[in-house]
Amino acid sequence: MWLHNRTRTAGSIGAVFAVVSTVLILVGRIYFDEALPVAVVGVVVCTAMVAIVVRGGVNEGAARWTLLGTLVLFVALSPEIPVDIPVSVSRAFTLRLEDLLLLVVLLGWTVTLHRSDHVYLPPFAVPFAGYLAVALVVTVVGIGVYALPAARAALYLLKEVQFLLFALLVANLVKSRADVSVVVTAFIFGGVLNATWMAVQLATGDLGPLFHTVDIAKWRYGPSLLGQPSVLASAGFYLPPVFLTFGMLLYRTGHRVRIICCALLVAFLGSMMVTVSRATIGATLFVLSVFTFGYAVRATDRNVVAYFVAALLAVIPFTVLNPLIVRRFLPQSVFSSIVSRLEIWNEFLAPPVPAMLVGFGKGSPGAVIGPAEAHNFYLRLLVETGIIGLVTFLLSIAVILQTGVKLVVHSDDPLFRTVGTGTVGVTAALLIVAIFQDVFINVKVAETFWLLIGMAGAVWRLYLDRQTDGTEPENV
Q: Which of 33, 91, 272, 306 has the fewest CB atoms below 10 angstroms from its CB?
């Protein structure tokens, strides 16, 4: 009873502060064009609320839902908060709300570990930890041999460690089917909030994030997320909402539910379209088409294909809202982009083969070799961590894909199959985007991806437990 009352009190306090913070942020945005002071207040308030909940215990359902929902929404909505700590000549340290939230939750989780038997390691954890170990060794060598700036190297390496911590935290916090539903709902809700903000930008003509904490001039192509102006981040963020919604369209039944899924797909795909990120848009449409074709071949209910085609047709008018979309997809524009990337790739392939096979360390692009962005994540990994790092990273991705495919093929639970579809779809799309962008180190995209992968790891454990005890899937 004490724990229940504590959790309810924390939730009430959090709700009140969330409303107040939202109002203050809107006032700051409208009248002062600056949200940084309010964002700092929001950090203090939210972390205090989460600390109260963690003190109550992460093993209690309502506390888990609060933590999981807050974590996903912070990633979806958080702006970059500049901190006056230079990392390199061209890069400064920035803080996000989810960074502090993760720190608080990890501390609380560490305190409560004695209540559980062990820390659950999902299938992808070991190979990805192996990749990080390789990256650490190569980076230390790079600092000593190639004069790689230590602060820059630490920033890039620790950020990827944080991605793994995000996934492990979610994988261990999600303990029931209801928890999975909360995380999926938070993903969809975060997508709806950002899509709504993009619609406001299109209607008013005032493009840019709600939170003016960074200079947005160099990022401006089309509408932005609530807290992030980057084109790649704005487009890549919608991958989990798109593929989770698509999974619901495939495996949920009922005309009304599918109409809602179609509406959500139109909103998310339309928002992705107006960001004019060619690689993300093309990869998403390709993977969705492959999924739809495979489903149409095997499934008896072909109506899903009609719903999906209707959603795609409804997205077409979004191209009219931003003529830049058409111009960027013209053959000459695409060809020019490919040529410029080939020139960048040639710079990264210039060093001797032995040095390329060993690697120069995390953060070496722009500091030791070539420009700051390789515009090809696989080439970047080869330069940073060598062939061993590239192979171990791809091994972890292969394990993730295998887990998602198993959930889709073997599970009878529509929710589990939805998560499996989201896992396979987002991972496949990012693998394609990675040919043209350093996408797996884009903070907004990577954090969203690893939260989804952590949930997939938890769902896999729930699926195995269900197979062991023989329980039937819950009704949807």
A: 33
> Could you say which DSSP state residue 474 is in?
P
Residue 44: is its pLDDT beyond 50?
Answer: yes
| pLDDT of 130 higher than 90 | yes
- Round to whole Å and give the CA distance between 458 and 172: 7
**CB neighbours of residue 239 within 10 Å:** 29
Question: Position 219: which residue type?
Answer: W
Looking at per-residue confidence, does 243 or 78 come out higher?
A: 243
User: What is the SS3 assignment for 228?
Assistant: coil
Residue count (the chain): 476
pLDDT digits (tens, 9 = 90+) for 447-472: 999 999 999 999 999 999 888 776 54
Specify the 3-state DSSP secondary structure of 374: coil
Nearest residue to 101 (alpha-carbon basis) of 118, 81, 86: 81
Rounded alpha-carbon distances, angstroms, from residue 45 to 16, 32, 51, 74? 10, 21, 10, 13
CB 184 within 8 A of CB 190: no
Please name every residue paired with 86 in a beta bridge, in sequence order, or none if there are none: 92
DSSP 403: H
Max CA pair span of the chain: 67
At 140 the pLDDT is: 94
* Short-list 441, 473, 465, 469, CA closest to 159: 441
Report d(CA 198, CA 202) in Å as an integer: 6
Q: How confident is the model at residue 8 (pLDDT cuts 50, 70, 90)?
A: very low
- C-alpha 421: how far from chain center: 15
φ/ψ region of 395 (left if φ > 0, alpha if ψ in -120 to 50, else beta) reads alpha
Contact, 416 vs 463, CB < 8 A? yes
Q: What 3-state DSSP class applies to 459?
A: helix
